[in-house]
Specification:
alpha/beta, 13 strands
């Protein structure tokens, strides 16, 4: 095989995800894992029972339809109409995927040519970089800066070139917790229309906007319906992250393009769980309101504990995550801090620097997740108080 590297150059430097690395560290040390964003309790019992019922009834145990079962596609369309007054044809404008991760991968592979530029908020979820790389495209970061992490829309305009193909948005935003306002999205939409750009938006935390902030899909704004691919999933909203049920929503020709790539990735997935998620999407408003209120309370519980331990805390407007700064401890390297934190305090967190192309931009930022039981959050913060001393 000579001296040629085995891993192709597009994926050079990506390696093992930070989540796998830090979760392995949590397992090895017995530390509390506030790194990876998965709940430590299951979602609604009625939804879990719906999956069991589907298994026992033999629904979904064999290959489901390529686009997803009709019941789930209809439920997704009903959800968009119910919450956003957005009308979708479930037969041509909805595609079920193996989680939002596959949806992003299939979308990038379908819509990008080698050399196309993708503007994405930095820090960005790590799969964005990998999916853009696999499509042989070029990522162009728009850096969100502490403490507010709001996008600089003037800077966004300067980054658009003749090679720009699409804007990759994420709101509510992981890892910063920023939620785009309608005014910000309107300005982004105007730029997309002016420059004839596609917009791909990751909305998996759509039901987790706090303190009165409201998530508004950019697809609802003027001129955006035909150029936007909206992506969401069941994992974050219903606390069944292991089921890996996601979806793509877009104008028919865009969905058709994404489906062409998707069918050669997993083909289909999660058959019985699709029936359960179809039922979950029809849960009453009280479920979604209660879920949001509970996570906001957990955010405040962890945030207060982190402040007491000495962290600078950037209050998130949404998601599962709190971004902090470790400068008050005299620390300057978040990655080194997170590598030693399990031994020092018995807690695992994620260094935000891995989500930046410019590591200096997030070098002192550390992300914690609060989608855990109250007693776990309380124990974690009590351990972190050791840092204050």
């Amino acid at each position: 095989m000579g001296d040629r590297p085995l891993l192709n150059r597009r994926l050079d430097g990506l390696g093992t995800t930070i989540f796998a690395e830090m979760s392995a560290l949590a397992t090895a040390t017995g530390a509390i894992n506030l790194g990876q964003g998965f709940p430590d309790t299951d979602g609604p019992e009625s939804v879990r029972e719906a999956a069991v019922r589907a298994l026992r009834d033999g629904r979904g145990n064999q290959y489901p339809p390529g686009p997803g079962i009709p019941e789930l596609r209809q439920a997704i369309a009903d959800h968009q109409r119910r919450f956003y007054d957005l009308s979708l044809d479930p037969d041509t404008e909805v595609l079920v995927t193996a989680g939002a991760t596959e949806a992003i991968a299939a979308t990038m592979l379908a819509l990008l040519e080698p050399g196309d530029e993708v503007i994405a908020f930095e820090p960005f979820y790590d799969s964005y970089a990998a999916c853009i790389a696999m499509a042989s495209a070029k990522r162009v970061p728009l850096t969100l800066r502490a403490p507010s992490f709001r996008p600089d829309l003037d800077e966004l305009r300067t980054k658009i070139t003749p090679q720009t193909r699409l804007l990759l948005l994420n709101t509510p935003h992981n890892p910063t917790g920023m939620v785009l306002t309608t005014d910000e999205q309107s300005a982004i939409a105007a730029l997309a229309v002016e420059h004839d750009l596609l917009v791909v938006t990751d909305e998996v935390y759509e039901h987790l906007a706090f303190d009165g902030a409201t998530h508004v899909p950019i697809a609802t704004l003027p001129g955006m319906r035909e150029r936007t691919v909206s992506i969401s999933s069941a994992g974050k909203t219903f606390s069944f992250t292991g089921w890996k049920v996601g979806w793509v929503m877009a104008h028919g020709p865009l969905v058709s393009a994404v489906r062409t790539a998707k069918q050669y990735l997993t083909y289909v997935s999660a058959g019985p769980f699709q029936y359960a998620v179809a039922e979950a999407l029809h849960l009453p408003d009280s479920y979604f309101d209660g879920f949001r209120a509970d996570l906001q309370r957990k955010r405040d519980l962890l945030g207060d504990g982190l402040r007491a331990a000495g962290f600078e805390v950037y209050q998130p407007e949404g998601t599962y995550f709190i971004t902090t700064d470790i400068t008050p401890f005299g620390e300057k390297d978040a990655y080194a801090f997170c590598r030693t934190l399990p031994k020092r305090c018995g807690v695992v967190a994620i260094p935000n620097s891995v989500f930046y192309d410019d590591p200096d931009a997030g070098r002192t930022q550390v992300r914690f997740t609060f989608c855990k039981k109250d007693e776990v959050l309380a124990e974690a913060t009590s351990r972190l108080w050791r840092l204050a001393s």
